């Protein structure tokens, strides 16, 4: 990097902070901070949903998969995400929007207290928060790894720089700041991705051009959609995982659906995000597929290949823009996660722990939300410094194995609890599927994995916990039905097709005391 690249990077950080300060004027209460008051346009929600779904891990961990295996990085990652979101645009997005517009909640987990009971809500809230700390820690480590390649700063210094900048704008401006910075980040990403795509295509002439390049020996097998450990079982498992995760199971995407004015607009935002996931990653991945022809990775997993290729192909200025693109991915996801976890703690956890929290007014609730955001970011940054330790092994292990494997047991009670089909599944089904799904994750990844020669294949490490939770949730619901008139009433309000008058626009969040005592708010 030279002074021009640094100017681009510093200018980007300045713009992100400025957006946060501007967004501060639009945040008057916790509803604005967590769900944008239900006033976010569907197209902004869709772009924000897309941008908050991936980070610099794509340019490290998934760049390594693309370097080693080729197009399977798209087939087994962004394609199932696009398909999952498209399904969710009809199945989940409108129902999640009604959580705000009809039940008047600010956290995606807030409705679980009435849908199941308080212990179920707390179990999912605490496990979801802990998983997110690890997940976001991996994202900080990924961007710090890239920053070290370009600038030479240490891993911990890179984590501190990106974490502090993100904390400033997302703490000040809430979800509005997240969405608006993600819009700007999308534009930057578009310019940077196209620049890198053009630079790589221009280099392919001696190798037979765009189509003939696939015959090169360095790309042997790169055109196969499913290879190695990323086979058909992994693809199907990943599709189910991403169906739940990217439609709200990891909380931050659920907020994008809640932030739109109506269920119909939530569905439109999901469809836009699905299209972006289907089309845009092809542009981003193509240079990674070609990277074995252009650079020689210095790491066994190929995770540094994209960064090395960027340094080799792009002139200064554009190099800075691509580095900014790396930051845009990570900061978009991490800031949205921080806002989601702040919502869960402020609306779900704190009221269960403290009578004072149940009595918070709008001003105190907003202060608590901002403090929680800072604390969450600090904890995730601390975890990031340990991401390459023996416990986590490496970045891609955290993202694929830990997040994909643990997300199912947490997300299934939350997501399936929205649907009429599963109205019989109550607290027993939810808690059993959650606890035994987590146990299955531990067994298959550690005791069983250590005892089997060669280890348990990756597709089973991530799919078995989800399968255990899914089967138990459904079976226990039929064996021990716990549907009640009160629970059925909540499900009907979430599933009603006729939205009726007064359900669009900003929804006033009920007093914290009302939310904590188990009473269902009335619209």
In percent, how much strand structure appears in the residues? under 5%
Overall morphology: globular
The number of distinct β-strands equals: 0
The name of the CATH architecture is Up-down Bundle
Tell me the Rg in angstroms: 22 Å
Family: Belongs to the sodium:solute symporter (SSF) (TC 2.A.21) family.
Keywords: Cell membrane, Ion transport, Membrane, Sodium, Sodium transport, Transmembrane, Transmembrane helix, Transport
Subcellular location: Cell membrane
Transmembrane segments: 6-22, 74-93, 159-179, 186-206, 226-248, 269-290, 367-387, 399-419, 431-448, 460-479
Helix/strand layout:
Elements: H1 3-23, H2 30-35, H3 42-51, H4 61-69, H5 72-91, H6 93-101, H7 112-115, H8 118-151, H9 155-202, H10 209-212, H11 232-249, H12 252-259, H13 263-294, H14 305-313, H15 318-353, H16 355-358, H17 362-384, H18 395-416, H19 427-445, H20 447-451, H21 458-479, H22 485-495, H23 512-516
Helix pairs in contact: 1-9, 1-15, 3-9, 3-12, 3-13, 4-13, 5-11, 5-13, 6-12, 6-13, 8-9, 8-15, 8-17, 8-18, 8-19, 9-13, 9-15, 9-17, 11-12, 11-18, 11-21, 12-13, 15-17, 18-19, 18-21, 19-21
């Amino acid at each position: 990097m030279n002074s021009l690249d640094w100017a681009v990077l510093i200018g980007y950080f300045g713009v992100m902070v400025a957006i946060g300060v501007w967004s501060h004027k639009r945040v008057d209460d916790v509803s604005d901070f967590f769900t944008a008051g239900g006033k976010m346009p569907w197209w902004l929600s869709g772009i924000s949903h897309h941008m908050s779904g991936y980070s610099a891990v794509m340019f490290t961990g998934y760049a390594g998969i693309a370097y080693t295996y080729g197009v399977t990085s798209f087939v087994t990652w962004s394609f199932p995400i696009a398909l999952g979101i498209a399904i969710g645009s009809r199945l989940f997005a409108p129902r999640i929007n009604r959580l705000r517009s009809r039940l008047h909640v600010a956290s995606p987990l807030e409705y679980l207290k009435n849908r199941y009971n308080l212990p179920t809500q707390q179990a999912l809230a605490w496990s979801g928060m802990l998983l997110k700390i690890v997940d976001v820690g991996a994202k900080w480590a990924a961007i710090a790894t890239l920053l070290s390649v370009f600038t030479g700063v240490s891993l911990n210094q890179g984590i501190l720089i990106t974490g502090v900048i993100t904390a400033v704008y997302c703490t000040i401006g809430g979800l509005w700041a997240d969405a608006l910075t993600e819009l700007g980040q999308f534009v930057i990403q578009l310019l940077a991705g196209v620049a890198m795509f053009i630079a790589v295509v221009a280099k392919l002439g001696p190798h037979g051009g765009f189509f003939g390049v696939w015959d090169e020996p360095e790309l042997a097998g790169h055109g196969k959609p499913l290879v190695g450990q990323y086979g058909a079982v992994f693809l199907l498992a990943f599709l189910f995982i991403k169906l739940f995760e990217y439609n709200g199971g990891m909380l931050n995407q659920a907020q994008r659906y809640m932030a739109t004015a109506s269920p119909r607009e939530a569905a439109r935002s999901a469809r836009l995000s699905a299209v972006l996931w289907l089309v845009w990653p092809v542009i981003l991945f193509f240079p990674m597929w070609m990277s074995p022809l252009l650079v020689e990775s210095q790491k066994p997993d190929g995770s540094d290949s994209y960064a090395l290729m960027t340094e080799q192909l792009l002139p200064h200025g554009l190099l800075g823009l691509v580095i900014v693109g790396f930051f845009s991915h990570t900061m978009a996801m991490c800031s949205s996660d921080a806002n989601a976890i702040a919502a869960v703690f402020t609306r779900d956890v704190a009221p269960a722990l403290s009578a004072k929290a149940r009595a918070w007014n709008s001003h105190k609730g907003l202060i608590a939300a901002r403090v929680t955001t800072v604390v969450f970011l600090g904890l995730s940054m601390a975890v990031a410094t340990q991401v390459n330790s023996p416990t986590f092994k490496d970045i891609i292990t955290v993202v694929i194995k830990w997040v994909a494997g643990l997300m199912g047991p947490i997300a299934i009670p939350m997501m399936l609890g929205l649907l009429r089909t599963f109205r019989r599944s109550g607290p027993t089904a939810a808690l059993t599927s959650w606890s035994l799904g987590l146990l299955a994750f531990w067994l298959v990844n550690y005791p069983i994995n250590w005892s089997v020669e060669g280890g348990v294949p990756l597709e089973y490490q991530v799919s078995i916990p989800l399968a255990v939770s899914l089967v138990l949730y459904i079976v226990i619901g039929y064996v021990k039905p716990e549907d009640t008139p009160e629970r059925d009433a909540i499900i009907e309000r979430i599933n009603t097709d006729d939205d009726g008058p007064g359900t669009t626009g900003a929804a006033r969040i009920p007093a914290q005391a009302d939310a904590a005592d188990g009473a269902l708010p009335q619209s």
